[in-house]
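Whether sequence alone determines local backbone shape is best considered at the level of individual chains. In the encoding step, the backbone of a single protein was reduced to a row of integers, each denoting a local shape. For completeness, the protein is quoted in full, as a sequence line and a line of structure tokens.
***
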Amino acid sequence: MVVPVLVFCVVVHGIAGAGDLKRVGRVGVKALIYFEVLTTIALLLGLALAYYFEPGVGMNVDAKALDAKAMSAYVETAGKLTGGGTVDFLMKLIPTTVVSGFVTGDVLQVLLFAVLFGGALTMLGKAGAPVADFIDTLSHVLFKVMGILIKLAPLGVLGAIAFTVSKYGIGFLKQLGLLVALLFGEVAIFVFVILGFVMRMSGFSIVKLLKYLREELMVVFATTSSDSVLPQIMAKLRNMGIRDSTVGLVIPTGYSFNLDAFSLYITLAAVFIAQATNTPITMIDLLTILAISLVTSKGAHGVPGSAIVVLAATLQAIPAIPAVGLVLVLSVDWFMGIARALGNLVGNCVATVAVAAWEGDIDRERAHAVLDGRVIPSIDSDVDSSAAPVAARA
């Protein structure tokens, strides 16, 4: 409900706050390069570990016996997502009207309009200041709305877990436990090894960053959604000494383009389905999975049932793997969603730190002081607002 407008406000404020379109473009290009490199590494890691641990081997599931009706809605949405090829995919980035992206929740369309709006606002200079101030104020109002909504998160978690266990049973969940555990393991390896290396190259510690963000990570663990802590995360990154415009550009863009844990999930799940249904896949199939995933994962944020939808869209390009096998993954998707949300959140926070260090947009002395736990004055009053501790307790 809130995310599309919130993303618009944050991106526009970030561009207008930078005051220099050349600088905005430079930060944007660096962020996109970083996103693509890390996403590709995540996809490759997911494939490698899926083949090494073979979570689906031995299940011997007959694809014809699975209930295809359970996947009909997801497959239909996946067809809309990828139908028409590359040209159609690119054309879908352009909203029909100014409000189309907000109405449908298409974050990529919202991002496109936000970049155009923010750029135009910057060109206006002082004449556009009142509009920029209004958008900044509106974003703070939406932050507060998010803080109110997150108080209800425990009720949603209760319902989701109760439904999954009652419908599929404890025994069925245990059979797929290896798949869930493997995804959590992959995310842990990616965070502490890959992202840990990125943080070290940037001059900081991944462990200290995770400790600094522990309250937000607790909320994401409970809600399986990184959207719920967007305001607090941005405030904390600013409090680290990262330039406001860099935070405002990298974080919202990363929510659509830098889904590291999501990428791990796609390749792992695709190989799992092939193994569970005894479907042989060739090197060409694997390369196709990688290529398609690089495209289908973009804009997955905001798509209803995005994980299953994007996986369905990926498998449609690989006829050898039965798409109906998604039924197996669907039953434990909520639990896997926890790992996806945590990994995506940490990945975007590390991306912000890395791009800021690359661009020279971070106060290193302040960042080290904050990560070391030393008490210093807060840059942003929202960092210590009631939303963060309430969400953490939830």
